[in-house]
Q: What sequence folds into this?
C-alpha cells in the first residue's frame, strides 16, 4: 500500500484534492462577506422576514399620525401638546415614524424585498420550467423499498402488460417516461403526477406576492388620495388647494387633477329613534351635481357603499356633521357671516370654532352644538345627546384678543391662550343673543356638511391580478401533491407474468394511501390478472404482504435515478 507524503507541500502532492482557493487579504474577507450576505438575501425565509418587518411598519403608520395626512396633529405630537410626549416623539421621528412610507428605512426594506423575491423566483422558475419540459420520471432500481408495493399475476406477456399499464396510467393523467428512454436495461413503466400542479401552484403563490408588492409600490407613486368637507349648497373644485388633506403619490403632479367641480345639493340622514337602537343611521346619502372635465353635467347620489366615479377618480362618502350658520356683530357692524363645519367629539356634542379677525380686537367663538336640546321648565336646554336636529342649541364661549391667524391652526378648535373671555351663553336656532362688550351672536340656520374622499388608484387592476394569482396558486399548493408510480412485469421460472406496482408520495402520504388500492385495482383489471396479493388500501386486510404496510422509518431508494426520494422519519 502506498503512503501519502504529508511532509510535502500540498501543491507537490498529487494525491491531495484541493478545492478552489479563496482570495487572501482584506479583499477576500470582503468578497466572502458579500457572498454570504447574498446567500442570506436570496432565501425565501429572508423575504418573509422582510415582509413581516414591512407589515410592522405599516401597522405603525396606522397608529402614529402621518405628516402628509395630518400635519397639525404631527406638530402637536412633536411639541408635546398631544401624544405620548416629546421623548417618545423624538424616538418616532428618529425612525421616520411620522412619514413611514417616505422614510429611508421603509424604502430600503422595500428594495431588499424586491431583490430577495427576484432572486428567489428566478431559479424556482427555471427549475419548474426544466421539470415541466423534461417529462422523464426516473425508474427505480429497487421497487421493494418504495413506500407502497403490491404484486399480482397476469395472463399477458411482459410487453403487452407494460403497454396496458401505460394506457391505464395515461388515462389517469400521469406523465409517463418515454419507452425508448434509458432505463438501465430494467423493463419498467415509470410515471409521475402532481409536479406541474403543485410546483406551479407554489410558484404562482409566490409570484402573487411579487405582483401585489409591485402594485402597492406603484400605487403609492402614481395614486392620489384627498379628503374635503363640503357644506350643503356649496362645492369644491378638484385642485390641490381645495382639499383639507392632500396625499398625492411621489409621481402625482398638480396637472394630474382632472379639475371637475362638485356641489352638494342636499345631505339626507335619518336615524332609528327606538330606545334600543337610538342613534343608528337609517338613511345616509348625499345628492351631488358634478361638472366633469369635458363640461358635461350630471347628478348622482353617493352613499357609503356606492361611490361616484368622475374622470377615473372615485368619490366616497366618509364623514358628516353639522354646519351652523352664525352671524357676529361688533358694535352693530357685521364682522362674520358664514358657516363652519362642526365635528362630533367624545363628549357627545359637535364642536367648532368661529374666528372673526375683522373686529378690533379679534373675536373668537368656541362653539358647542347640541342638535336636540329641548328647553326645560326653567328655560334652560336639556342636554339629551341625541344626534337628530329637532331642537338645536349653541353653547357659545366668546373671546377677544389676538387670534394668531398667522400660525397653523385647527379650524374646529379655538386656541384661547392669550385671549380674554367675554361671555358664555346659549343661542337657539332662529334667535339672537347680546353678549358683553358690544358683541351680538345670531344663529339663523343649521346646515349639514359631508366629508368626501377623492382617490385615484391606477394600480387596482394589478392588485386584482395579484389576488387572482394568489388564489390560483394557493389551492393547488395546498391540495395537490407529487407522487410516482412504477409498474414492472417479469416472467418467473414457471412462465407466469408477475406484475409489481410500487408507489411513492412526496407530500400528503395519507391522501396517496387512500387512493392506492383503487390504483392497483384499476391496473389489475387492465392487465387481466388474478386477485392481487395485497392492494395496500387497507394495511390490516387479510392477504396483505408486509410491503403493503407503509413503514415510516423505511429507507427509500437511493439509486441515481431516484435522487429526490426522501427518508421519512417519525
A:
Amino acid at each position: 500500500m502506498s503512503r501519502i507524503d504529508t511532509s510535502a507541500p500540498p501543491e507537490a502532492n498529487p494525491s491531495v484534492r484541493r478545492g478552489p482557493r479563496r482570495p487572501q487579504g482584506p479583499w477576500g474577507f470582503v468578497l466572502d462577506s458579500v457572498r454570504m450576505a447574498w446567500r442570506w438575501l436570496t432565501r425565501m425565509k429572508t423575504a418573509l422576514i422582510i415582509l413581516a418587518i414591512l407589515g410592522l411598519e405599516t401597522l405603525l403608520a396606522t397608529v402614529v399620525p402621518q405628516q402628509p395626512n395630518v400635519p397639525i396633529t404631527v406638530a402637536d405630537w412633536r411639541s408635546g401638546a398631544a401624544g405620548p410626549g416629546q421623548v417618545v416623539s423624538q424616538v418616532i421621528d428618529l425612525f421616520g415614524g411620522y412619514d413611514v412610507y417616505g422614510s429611508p428605512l421603509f424604502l430600503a426594506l422595500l428594495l431588499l424585498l424586491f431583490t430577495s423575491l427576484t432572486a428567489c423566483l428566478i431559479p424556482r422558475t427555471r427549475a419548474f420550467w426544466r421539470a415541466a419540459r423534461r417529462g422523464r420520471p426516473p425508474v427505480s432500481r429497487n421497487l421493494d423499498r418504495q413506500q407502497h408495493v403490491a404484486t399480482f399475476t397476469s395472463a399477458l406477456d411482459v410487453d403487452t402488460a407494460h403497454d396496458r399499464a401505460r394506457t391505464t396510467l395515461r388515462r389517469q393523467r400521469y406523465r409517463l417516461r418515454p419507452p425508448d428512454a434509458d432505463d438501465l436495461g430494467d423493463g419498467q413503466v415509470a410515471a409521475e403526477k402532481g409536479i406541474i400542479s403543485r410546483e406551479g401552484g407554489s410558484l404562482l403563490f409566490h409570484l402573487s406576492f411579487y405582483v401585489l408588492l409591485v402594485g402597492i409600490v406603484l400605487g403609492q407613486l402614481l395614486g392620489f388620495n384627498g379628503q374635503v368637507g363640503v357644506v350643503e349648497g356649496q362645492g369644491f373644485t378638484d385642485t390641490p388647494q381645495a382639499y383639507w388633506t392632500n396625499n398625492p403619490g411621489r409621481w402625482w403632479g398638480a396637472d394630474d387633477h382632472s379639475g371637475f367641480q362638485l356641489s352638494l345639493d342636499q345631505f339626507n340622514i335619518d336615524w332609528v329613534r327606538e330606545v334600543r337602537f337610538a342613534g343608528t343611521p337609517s338613511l345616509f346619502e348625499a345628492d351631488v351635481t358634478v361638472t366633469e372635465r369635458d363640461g358635461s353635467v350630471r347628478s348622482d347620489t353617493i352613499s357609503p357603499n356606492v361611490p361616484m366615479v368622475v374622470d377615473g377618480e372615485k368619490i366616497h362618502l366618509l364623514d358628516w356633521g353639522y354646519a351652523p350658520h352664525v352671524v357676529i356683530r361688533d358694535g352693530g357692524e357685521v364682522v362674520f357671516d358664514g358657516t363652519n363645519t362642526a365635528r362630533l367629539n367624545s363628549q357627545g356634542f359637535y364642536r367648532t370654532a368661529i374666528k372673526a379677525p375683522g373686529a378690533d380686537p379679534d373675536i373668537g367663538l368656541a362653539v358647542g352644538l347640541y342638535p336636540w336640546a329641548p328647553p326645560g321648565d326653567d328655560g334652560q336646554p336639556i342636554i339629551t345627546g341625541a344626534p337628530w336636529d329637532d331642537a338645536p342649541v349653541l353653547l357659545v364661549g366668546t373671546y377677544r384678543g389676538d387670534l394668531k391667524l398667522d400660525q397653523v391652526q385647527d379650524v374646529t378648535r379655538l386656541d384661547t391662550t392669550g385671549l380674554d373671555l367675554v361671555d358664555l351663553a346659549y343661542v337657539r336656532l332662529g334667535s339672537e343673543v347680546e353678549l358683553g362688550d358690544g358683541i351680538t351672536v345670531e344663529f339663523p340656520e343649521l346646515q349639514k356638511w359631508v366629508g368626501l374622499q377623492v382617490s385615484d388608484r391606477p394600480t387596482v387592476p394589478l392588485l386584482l391580478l395579484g389576488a387572482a394569482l394568489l388564489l390560483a396558486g394557493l389551492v393547488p399548493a395546498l391540495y395537490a401533491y407529487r407522487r410516482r408510480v412504477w409498474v414492472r412485469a417479469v416472467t418467473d421460472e414457471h412462465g407466469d407474468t408477475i406484475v409489481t406496482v410500487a408507489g411513492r408520495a412526496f407530500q400528503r402520504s395519507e391522501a396517496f394511501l387512500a387512493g392506492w388500492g383503487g390504483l392497483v385495482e384499476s391496473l389489475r383489471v387492465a392487465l387481466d390478472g388474478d386477485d392481487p396479493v395485497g392492494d395496500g388500501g387497507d394495511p390490516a386486510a387479510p392477504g396483505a404482504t408486509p410491503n403493503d404496510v407503509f413503514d415510516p422509518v423505511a429507507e427509500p431508494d437511493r439509486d441515481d435515478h431516484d435522487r429526490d426520494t426522501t427518508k421519512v422519519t417519525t
Q: What stands out?
A: The mean pLDDT is 81. Residues 245 and 292 are 22 Å apart (CA to CA). DSSP finds nine helices and 21 strands in the chain. The radius of gyration is 39 Å.
